[in-house]
Design a protein that fits this description.
Helices cover 28% and strands 33% of the residues. The protein is an alpha+beta fold. A hairpin with a 2-residue loop joins strand 13 and strand 14.
Length: 225
Protein backbone atom coordinates (compact mmCIF):
# COMPACT_ATOMS: atom_id res chain seq x y z
CA UNK A 1 0.00 0.00 0.00
CA UNK A 2 1.39 3.39 -1.04
CA UNK A 3 0.59 6.49 1.08
CA UNK A 4 1.42 9.97 -0.24
CA UNK A 5 1.15 13.37 1.42
CA UNK A 6 0.89 16.82 -0.18
CA UNK A 7 1.58 20.27 1.25
CA UNK A 8 -0.72 22.26 -1.05
CA UNK A 9 -3.26 21.95 -3.85
CA UNK A 10 -0.79 21.98 -6.76
CA UNK A 11 1.37 19.32 -5.18
CA UNK A 12 -1.73 17.27 -4.39
CA UNK A 13 -2.88 17.43 -8.02
CA UNK A 14 0.54 16.36 -9.24
CA UNK A 15 0.67 13.39 -6.87
CA UNK A 16 -2.89 12.33 -7.71
CA UNK A 17 -2.09 12.29 -11.43
CA UNK A 18 1.14 10.43 -10.80
CA UNK A 19 0.01 7.83 -8.26
CA UNK A 20 -3.71 7.55 -9.20
CA UNK A 21 -4.82 6.86 -5.59
CA UNK A 22 -7.98 4.99 -4.64
CA UNK A 23 -8.77 7.22 -1.65
CA UNK A 24 -7.96 10.87 -0.91
CA UNK A 25 -8.28 12.48 2.53
CA UNK A 26 -8.78 16.17 1.89
CA UNK A 27 -9.03 19.30 4.05
CA UNK A 28 -11.03 22.39 3.07
CA UNK A 29 -8.39 24.97 4.02
CA UNK A 30 -5.14 24.36 2.12
CA UNK A 31 -2.19 26.57 1.10
CA UNK A 32 -2.69 28.21 -2.30
CA UNK A 33 -6.36 27.28 -2.69
CA UNK A 34 -8.92 25.07 -0.97
CA UNK A 35 -9.90 21.42 -1.07
CA UNK A 36 -13.11 22.15 -2.96
CA UNK A 37 -11.18 23.74 -5.83
CA UNK A 38 -8.94 20.68 -5.95
CA UNK A 39 -12.05 18.51 -6.16
CA UNK A 40 -13.27 20.54 -9.15
CA UNK A 41 -9.92 20.21 -10.94
CA UNK A 42 -9.66 16.43 -10.65
CA UNK A 43 -10.20 14.66 -13.95
CA UNK A 44 -13.07 12.18 -14.21
CA UNK A 45 -12.09 8.79 -12.85
CA UNK A 46 -9.38 10.14 -10.53
CA UNK A 47 -9.67 9.12 -6.85
CA UNK A 48 -12.76 6.95 -6.66
CA UNK A 49 -13.33 7.92 -3.02
CA UNK A 50 -12.73 11.33 -1.42
CA UNK A 51 -13.13 11.92 2.31
CA UNK A 52 -13.00 15.46 3.72
CA UNK A 53 -11.37 15.89 7.14
CA UNK A 54 -11.85 19.45 8.34
CA UNK A 55 -12.89 21.77 11.16
CA UNK A 56 -15.38 23.65 8.96
CA UNK A 57 -18.95 22.29 8.96
CA UNK A 58 -20.34 24.83 6.49
CA UNK A 59 -18.66 23.27 3.42
CA UNK A 60 -20.34 19.87 3.74
CA UNK A 61 -22.98 20.46 1.04
CA UNK A 62 -20.56 21.48 -1.77
CA UNK A 63 -18.31 18.59 -0.72
CA UNK A 64 -21.12 16.05 -1.06
CA UNK A 65 -22.30 17.73 -4.27
CA UNK A 66 -18.77 17.12 -5.52
CA UNK A 67 -19.36 13.41 -4.86
CA UNK A 68 -17.35 13.15 -1.65
CA UNK A 69 -17.85 9.88 0.20
CA UNK A 70 -17.84 11.36 3.69
CA UNK A 71 -17.20 14.57 5.62
CA UNK A 72 -15.37 14.23 8.94
CA UNK A 73 -15.32 17.06 11.47
CA UNK A 74 -12.24 17.43 13.65
CA UNK A 75 -11.56 16.03 16.18
CA UNK A 76 -12.23 12.67 14.52
CA UNK A 77 -12.85 9.58 16.64
CA UNK A 78 -11.42 6.22 15.66
CA UNK A 79 -14.93 4.81 15.25
CA UNK A 80 -15.96 7.64 12.91
CA UNK A 81 -12.77 7.28 10.87
CA UNK A 82 -13.30 3.57 10.27
CA UNK A 83 -16.92 4.20 9.33
CA UNK A 84 -15.77 6.67 6.65
CA UNK A 85 -13.13 4.22 5.46
CA UNK A 86 -15.78 1.50 5.09
CA UNK A 87 -17.90 3.86 3.00
CA UNK A 88 -14.88 4.64 0.81
CA UNK A 89 -14.22 0.94 0.22
CA UNK A 90 -17.88 0.37 -0.65
CA UNK A 91 -17.72 3.26 -3.16
CA UNK A 92 -14.60 1.78 -4.78
CA UNK A 93 -16.16 -1.67 -5.11
CA UNK A 94 -19.36 -0.16 -6.51
CA UNK A 95 -17.41 1.87 -9.08
CA UNK A 96 -15.41 -1.16 -10.16
CA UNK A 97 -18.61 -3.20 -10.57
CA UNK A 98 -20.31 -0.52 -12.65
CA UNK A 99 -17.26 -0.23 -14.92
CA UNK A 100 -17.35 -3.94 -15.58
CA UNK A 101 -21.07 -3.95 -16.45
CA UNK A 102 -22.16 -0.40 -17.27
CA UNK A 103 -25.88 0.30 -17.20
CA UNK A 104 -27.41 2.99 -19.40
CA UNK A 105 -30.84 4.31 -18.53
CA UNK A 106 -32.65 5.70 -21.59
CA UNK A 107 -33.70 9.31 -21.36
CA UNK A 108 -31.28 10.32 -18.61
CA UNK A 109 -29.10 13.38 -18.94
CA UNK A 110 -25.93 13.77 -16.89
CA UNK A 111 -25.94 17.55 -17.38
CA UNK A 112 -29.24 18.18 -15.54
CA UNK A 113 -29.46 21.43 -13.51
CA UNK A 114 -27.57 21.23 -10.21
CA UNK A 115 -30.10 22.59 -7.74
CA UNK A 116 -29.45 22.12 -4.04
CA UNK A 117 -30.37 18.55 -3.03
CA UNK A 118 -29.48 18.62 0.66
CA UNK A 119 -28.64 21.00 3.49
CA UNK A 120 -25.84 20.29 5.96
CA UNK A 121 -26.27 21.20 9.62
CA UNK A 122 -23.71 20.84 12.37
CA UNK A 123 -24.91 18.24 14.89
CA UNK A 124 -23.47 16.70 18.05
CA UNK A 125 -22.41 13.58 16.17
CA UNK A 126 -20.97 15.48 13.19
CA UNK A 127 -22.99 16.60 10.15
CA UNK A 128 -26.76 16.23 9.80
CA UNK A 129 -27.94 16.15 6.17
CA UNK A 130 -31.49 17.32 5.47
CA UNK A 131 -32.83 16.18 2.11
CA UNK A 132 -34.52 19.04 0.25
CA UNK A 133 -37.31 16.69 -0.85
CA UNK A 134 -38.23 16.21 2.85
CA UNK A 135 -38.64 19.95 3.53
CA UNK A 136 -42.20 21.30 3.62
CA UNK A 137 -41.46 24.99 4.05
CA UNK A 138 -38.77 27.49 5.05
CA UNK A 139 -39.34 30.31 7.53
CA UNK A 140 -36.95 33.26 7.80
CA UNK A 141 -36.01 34.44 11.29
CA UNK A 142 -33.56 37.38 11.03
CA UNK A 143 -30.23 35.80 10.01
CA UNK A 144 -31.56 32.26 10.36
CA UNK A 145 -33.95 29.98 8.50
CA UNK A 146 -36.25 27.57 10.30
CA UNK A 147 -36.49 24.42 8.19
CA UNK A 148 -39.85 22.69 8.56
CA UNK A 149 -40.22 19.04 7.63
CA UNK A 150 -43.38 17.06 8.39
CA UNK A 151 -41.67 15.52 11.45
CA UNK A 152 -39.11 18.02 12.79
CA UNK A 153 -37.76 21.55 12.65
CA UNK A 154 -34.14 22.62 12.18
CA UNK A 155 -32.35 25.96 12.35
CA UNK A 156 -29.91 27.05 9.63
CA UNK A 157 -27.67 30.12 9.77
CA UNK A 158 -28.43 31.66 6.36
CA UNK A 159 -30.75 34.09 4.61
CA UNK A 160 -33.86 33.07 2.70
CA UNK A 161 -32.82 35.10 -0.36
CA UNK A 162 -29.52 33.23 -0.63
CA UNK A 163 -31.12 29.83 -0.07
CA UNK A 164 -33.81 30.35 -2.71
CA UNK A 165 -31.13 31.07 -5.33
CA UNK A 166 -30.04 27.43 -4.94
CA UNK A 167 -33.50 25.80 -4.96
CA UNK A 168 -35.49 24.48 -7.91
CA UNK A 169 -38.15 27.16 -8.68
CA UNK A 170 -40.50 24.40 -9.87
CA UNK A 171 -40.29 22.84 -6.40
CA UNK A 172 -40.46 25.81 -4.00
CA UNK A 173 -42.29 29.11 -4.24
CA UNK A 174 -41.85 32.20 -2.09
CA UNK A 175 -45.19 33.30 -0.66
CA UNK A 176 -44.07 35.86 1.91
CA UNK A 177 -40.90 37.86 2.60
CA UNK A 178 -40.24 35.36 5.38
CA UNK A 179 -41.68 32.14 3.93
CA UNK A 180 -41.23 29.75 1.01
CA UNK A 181 -43.24 26.54 0.64
CA UNK A 182 -42.90 23.33 -1.34
CA UNK A 183 -45.57 23.47 -4.02
CA UNK A 184 -46.42 19.77 -3.75
CA UNK A 185 -47.12 20.19 -0.01
CA UNK A 186 -49.95 22.70 -0.51
CA UNK A 187 -53.30 21.07 0.31
CA UNK A 188 -55.71 23.99 0.82
CA UNK A 189 -55.78 27.70 0.00
CA UNK A 190 -58.10 30.05 1.92
CA UNK A 191 -58.55 33.73 1.17
CA UNK A 192 -58.05 36.14 4.08
CA UNK A 193 -58.41 39.46 2.32
CA UNK A 194 -57.74 40.74 -1.19
CA UNK A 195 -54.27 39.48 -2.06
CA UNK A 196 -53.70 37.51 1.15
CA UNK A 197 -54.17 33.77 1.70
CA UNK A 198 -53.62 31.02 4.25
CA UNK A 199 -51.97 27.91 2.85
CA UNK A 200 -52.60 24.61 4.61
CA UNK A 201 -49.76 22.16 4.01
CA UNK A 202 -49.63 18.35 4.12
CA UNK A 203 -48.53 18.31 7.78
CA UNK A 204 -51.39 20.62 8.77
CA UNK A 205 -49.10 23.64 9.09
CA UNK A 206 -50.69 26.95 8.08
CA UNK A 207 -48.60 29.56 6.26
CA UNK A 208 -49.81 33.12 5.68
CA UNK A 209 -48.91 34.68 2.34
CA UNK A 210 -47.84 38.28 1.79
CA UNK A 211 -49.83 40.77 -0.25
CA UNK A 212 -46.81 41.58 -2.44
CA UNK A 213 -46.77 37.91 -3.54
CA UNK A 214 -50.43 37.80 -4.61
CA UNK A 215 -49.60 37.54 -8.34
CA UNK A 216 -47.32 34.59 -7.62
CA UNK A 217 -50.14 32.88 -5.72
CA UNK A 218 -52.72 33.63 -8.41
CA UNK A 219 -50.43 32.23 -11.08
CA UNK A 220 -49.85 29.16 -8.94
CA UNK A 221 -53.56 28.68 -8.35
CA UNK A 222 -54.31 28.96 -12.06
CA UNK A 223 -51.91 26.07 -12.67
CA UNK A 224 -53.75 23.92 -10.12
CA UNK A 225 -57.09 24.17 -11.92
Amino acid sequence: MLIEQAADVEQALHKVRLADPQIIFLDVKMPGADGLSLLQRLEAGRARAIIFVTAFAEYAVPAFDGNAVDYLLKPVTRERFYKALARAKARIHSTQASQQSPAVVPGTNASSPRYLQRIALKAREGIKLIQIRDVEWFEAEENYIRIHTEQKEYLLHATLNRLLESLDPDMFVRVHRSAAVKIDSIREVHSLSPGEYILTLASGARVRTGRSYRETLRSLLSNFT
